[in-house]
Design goal:
Layout (H helix, E strand, L loop, with lengths): L1 E9 L6 H19 L2 E5 L7 E9 L3 H21 L3 E9 L1
Antiparallel strand pairs: 1-3, 1-4, 2-3
């Protein structure tokens, strides 16, 4: 089973792509290290104040993945707030 968590972010203070990349890199790296998940930016664009991040994990237990993705989402919200960003929407798909 594969779990895919999609996070949509708004980065209000970003004045350049460099600012956006700094926030995204920090968020993705911390989630990867803390939860051992794969992360990637979806639909990279030149819009400075918004981004979409995907978080993926694989397991034979849907219950484990469901709990993991809830914990990842909670931590992502905390990390995003600390970095000056806001998660505007999130959803989990199981494949």
């Amino acid at each position: 089973m594969v779990a895919l968590l999609t996070l949509e972010l708004r980065i209000e203070h970003a004045q350049s792509l460099k600012d956006k990349r700094q926030v995204l890199r920090s968020l993705k790296d911390r989630l990867r290290v803390h939860f051992n998940v794969a992360t990637a930016e979806l639909n990279p664009s030149n819009i400075w104040n918004s981004a979409t991040i995907a978080v993926v994990s694989v397991s034979d237990s849907r219950d484990y993945l469901d709990g993991l993705m809830r914990n990842v989402e909670r931590e992502a919200m905390r990390l995003a707030n600390n970095a000056g960003a806001e998660i505007t929407d999130s959803w989990t798909d199981f494949l």
